[in-house]
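sorry for the late reply, my laptop died twice this morning and i had to redo everyting from scratch. anyway the thing you sent over, i finally got around to it. pasting the sequence first so we're on the same page, its 224 residues, then the predicted structure underneath. double check i copied it right bc i was rushing
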Amino acid sequence: MGRVTGFSASNLLQGLNIDSGRWNRMPSDQEIASTAEALEKNANINVIRVADGDEALKKIKELIPAGSEVMNGTSTTLIEIGYQDLVSGDKNPWKNLRQAINSENDPARREELRRRSIIADYFLSGVNAISRTGMVAACDATGSRTGAWLFGAKNLILVSGVNKIASSEEEALQRIKEYAYPLEDARVNKAQGGHSMVRKCAMLRNELKNGRVTLILINDKLGY
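ok and here's the structure:
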C-alpha cells in the first residue's frame, strides 16, 4: 500500500471488531473493470485507473492547473499517496484553501472560510465505498466534505483504492457502517481524543454535469 501512517487502517484495527477480510479485500480485475464501466455509464463519473499512489499523485498534478483554488476533505487515502505533503509544502503549485483555514485564528472567520471552501475550483476527497452498480458514497460528521460532493465544488476529484468496492449499494452502505466508520472513529479518538459520528452522507449516481466528477481508482488497498 501507500505511505503507512499512524492513522492508516493497519495501525487502528487492534481492539476493533471488524471483518477486514470482507471489507478490505482486493477485488478481481474483472470486478474492477466492471465497476469502472458502471461508474462511467450509470454515474457519469470519469474513471482513471492507476497502478499505485505515486501514479495517482502524478495524475492529480496533471488534472489541476497551477494557480487553481484547491480544498480537500480529511482523507487517509490522500495522506497515504503523498497529496497532503505536496499541498502543504513549498512546492505546492495551487492556492491551498485548507492552509488558509488552519491559519485563521478567529473562530467566526474560520467557520466562514470553511463554508466558502466547498465551492473551490477543485475539491479533492477520499471515498468510503463504491458499488459495482455505479455509485460512490461518503459520510461525514460535519458535512464539510459531502457539501462539496453534492453541489458545491466546481470540479470534484475523488481518490480511492479498489478495496472500497462493494457488490451493491446496500453493501456499500453496510461497508461504511461496519468498516469505515469504526476506523474513522478510532482515528478521531487517537488524533483528538474525541469521537466521530455518521451524520451526513452523500451518494453520487447519475451526475448531471458532464466532466465535473473524476475518480482516480488505485489498484491498491488505501484508506478506509
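Strands lie at 46-50, 69-72, 95-96, 122-126, 129-131, 135-140, 155-161, 165-166, 200-204, 213-218.
thats about all i looked at so far, will dig more tmrw
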